[in-house]
Amino acid sequence: MDCQKIIKTLKHKDFIKVTNTGKCFENGAAIYAKEIKDNIFLLFVILKDIDIENIQALIAHFDCFNSIGIKEPEQIMFYFSIKDKDDLHYFEQYLEAANN
Prior knowledge:
The protein is built from two helices and five strands; from the N terminus they run αβββββα. It has helices at 3-12, 85-99; strands at 16-18, 30-37, 40-46, 55-61, 75-82. The protein has a five-stranded antiparallel beta sheet. The longest helix is centred in the C-terminal third of the chain and has 15 residues, at 85-99.
């Protein structure tokens, strides 16, 4: 699975691309978010250059959907950084296990 495939999967799974105008995430990062519980969001942050070493996944609490990409999260409950192909491999296995 490469970054382009991840982006296609996120769009297919009803993730919404969020405009990044704040200072919480790196300038030029693409943010894809999906609410999983009241004001708890699953986010994927992918840097503009679409390099495998620049993907982050997190579960965070925001005061509302519109504050994502503008304000800092109120709480980060889970954070995963994909830094190499082994990380991506383990993440794929986690996703497959979560779907079963």
